[in-house]
Structure formats: structure tokens, C-alpha cells
Model the fold of this input.
Amino acid sequence: MPEIPAVPRRLVLGGALATGALAAGMGSARAGTSEAAAPGRRPGQKSMINVPYEARDTVRVGIIGLGNRGGPMTTGWSVIPGCTVAAVCDIRPDRAKKSADALEKAGKPRPLEFGGSRDSYKELLKREDIDLVYIATPWEFHYEQGRAALLAGKHAAVELPIAPELKELWDLVDTSERTRRHLILAENCCYGRNELAMLRMAHEGVFGELTNGHGGYLHDLRALLFDDTYYTDSWRRLWHTRSRASFYPMHGLAPIAAAMDINRGDRMATLTATASAPKGLADYRERFVPKGHPSWKETYIEGDLTTCMIQTANGRTIRAEHDVSSPRPYSRINTLAGSRGLFEDYAGDDPTGARVYFEPDHSDDVWRGFAPYREEHEHWLWRELADEAENGGHGGMDYVMQWRIVQSMRAGLVPDFDVYDSAAWCSAVPLSVKSLENKGRPVQMPDFTRGSWVGKRPGLDSKQTEMPPVR
Ligand SMILES: NC(=O)c1ccc[n+]([C@@H]2O[C@H](COP(=O)([O-])OP(=O)(O)OC[C@H]3O[C@@H](n4cnc5c(N)ncnc54)[C@H](O)[C@@H]3O)[C@@H](O)[C@H]2O)c1
Done:
């Protein structure tokens, strides 16, 4: 095992253009502080639970970060009925221009362009004609930019994670409560077709009392991590040199947590992390990366497979995994089980890729393909949007997420998930660091709702509503 260097406090990330950026590294949780302790609310600060968006005709989106994710998502926002891309920003101004040109060419209004420095986004935030800020920059900028968006009076949808540090997650909760603006994780996988049908089945009691679930992000990113043109200035590979963490388990964790009604009657209480040795990236480099490439100066410390075992207050378990360094077909695992049966995604030959088995219908030890059950239990969003979503990213779930956020804002609805859900899902990142530092001992998971997790309330299992007509 390579020696594990101290996590640097001062990082230079987000691209060479961001040189001088101060970003706190994962794993710097202060010694002696309790992971679970909830800071008190300041005067004027109130819960954001069940707080609706203020209704509006059009949602005007400002986008920060126009790379692999932000670029296609910009097109995505622009085609949602009732949504306009009002401004685009990237530290690299040519990307802002390219996005604005593309929208104009597609017959959309030309958005304002911002860029040129790491602080250009602050100019975008000064605009009064922006309602929602979507942030798709490298991880190290999410906290700063999400917080600034709230303070500028905007709602914010932030790519994964909303912040990598526990104290930052708390600060986002507090800032949302103070500003009365929503900040949510842009967790597209919560809107996956299988995930939403699984959620419906769970809530209809098909699997009995839920007892356990597994999810994760298992994606062989090795070629992309070493590609000099994919992740801007290799920001994502660099995280593997500086921290041992479950960097990105939320795509698998969030849908399982939603099915289990986390923050709506149950809560994630403790987390125990394990990590395998870091072998995959060095092995890949040895075989495929020319000597002399800058990566040869790097030492990878992030374990290939990081597993979080989470215990909930109601005695359920969730296993959340992260591995982007090993050869393997893609999987988010997405498995849910209860006293009467189970659902397993990424398994079997069914066209949906999933299978089920539950009593009393099944008692013969034989899996059933998911397709007829998905049709029977289809979430209303997919019944409504399957055709429109067809051309959207990630099998349509990007479109469904964007449609639902815009629809919720236009109709003045409560968001399907909120800053508390987002912070809870993302807390697996810093808490995995803490648990690994503590030789895999369990760590307490904070209750970002400050006691309100007990109450039942709607979430992703929403009632069908009409999109307000577009005038
Ligand atoms: N939800 C999903 O399915 C999904 C998929 C891919 C990526 N992501 C997430 O999206 C985010 C971006 O990933 P990516 O693959 O697009 O990376 P990327 O490197 O392709 O893009 C990042 C962009 O941010 C810009 N940038 C950097 N610092 C900036 C700043 N201070 N101000 C404005 N722009 C800045 C860069 O110039 C670049 O264009 C990450 O959080 C990633 O985890 C999510």
C-alpha cells in the first residue's frame, strides 16, 4: 500500500485557469467535533420542509460550468416547456460563447455570456432575470457557487455532490433556511424509470416491510480519467491523489433512500466505510499511459472499491458503493428488499435490465423479468413523459428531472426532494472519510432536518399534476 499523504488544505483545481482557488479537501473534518451534532438555528432561520416554490410563468435558468455535463444539460433546459436559458457561464469564455451560439442556432433566445475568470459566475448571479442556477462545475466549486446562488436570491440545482465537507453541507442547509431558497442535488437517477417504478412498488407494499437496499456508482472511468481532453485539467483524477472517500455514491444511494422514505419517517443514522487497496488507476497507467505523461508524478490513494454500510433509525441497512477504477460493466446496483420480496436492477435478460421476486405471487425460487411490473407500477412522470424523454440524456431521466424541476417551480409546488435530502445523501462523502480514518468504525450521520425526519410527507412519489400551460 502506498503511504497516505496528508490531505492538502489548499488545492489548485477546476482547471489551470482557476489557479489560486481555495478549496477545502475532503477529509479535513475537524478533530473533536461530533459528526452528528446539529448546530442551532440562528434567529430568522426556519425549516424549508414543505416550502413551495413561488409560482411563475417561466423559469429562467443560469448555468455555471459548460463541460461534459453542463453542455448537454444546457440544451436539455432549453427544450423544457416554460424554461429559458437566460445566461451561461464558464471559466473558459469560449465555452460560454459556444453554448450561446448553439442555443441561438436552435432558435432559442441567445443567453447572456459570462466567463474569463473563476469569479465570473458572481456577475451571472447579480442578474435579476435568473430564477434557478444550475451548477455543473468540478466538485471543488459546488459549495461556494451553490451558497452564493442562494445568497443572491436564486434557487439552485447542483451537480453531485452539493458539497464535499460536512461543515459545508450544514452551511448549505442553514443558508437555504435563511434565504428561503431551495438548493437541491441535481440527482437525475432519482428520476430513472426503473428507480421510480421500484419506488412505487415499495410504497404500495409489494416488497412487504423494507429491510435493506443496495446502490452505488460502479463505472469504469479509467480511460476518461486519463484522457487529457475529457475532464478539464484532469480535475476528477486528481481527487484520487488526495482523499480516501466514497466520492460519488449518490446515484445509487439516493433512489434507495427515497424508496425507504429517508427524512420522511426514517433517517440514516450511522455509516461504516471500508475501502479496498488502490490498484486500478496505477495498473491502467502502467499499461496504457505513455511515460512522461503528467499522471506519472501522481500517487493514487483512493481505494478502488469504497463501501458504505448505513444503518437507519428504523433498523434498515443500505449498502452504497463507489468504484470508478476497475474494469467492469456499468452498474448502479439499485436493489431493494423487504419481508415479502425484492427488486434487483442490472441483472437478468429482461428488456428493463431488472428482475423481481415477491410473495404471494412467486413461490418457486424463479426470478421474474421486471417489464410487466414496471408497466403496472409506472410512475406518473414516466407515463406522461416517456415519449418526450426518449431523446434526453441518460435514458431520459435527465429530461424527466429537468421537466419536473421546471414544472414544480412554475406551478408553485414543493420540490420532490430538498436541501435536507441532498445534504443527507452527500454526507456519505465526508463521513466515509471519517470512518476510514477511524479504521472503519461507525460514525454518526447528522440529522439535517433537526428532528423533522419523523413526519411523513410527500417526496418523489408525488401526486400527478399538470404542467401549467405555456403562454
Ligand atoms: N448527474 C450526472 O449524470 C452527471 C454526469 C456527469 C457529470 N456530472 C457532474 O457534473 C459536474 C461537472 O462534470 P463534467 O464531467 O462536466 O466536468 P468538465 O471538466 O467536463 O466540466 C467542468 C466545467 O466547469 C468549468 N469550470 C471550472 N471552474 C469553473 C468556475 N469557477 N466557474 C465556471 N466554470 C468553471 C470548466 O471550464 C469546465 O467547462 C461534476 O460535478 C460531475 O460529477 C454529473
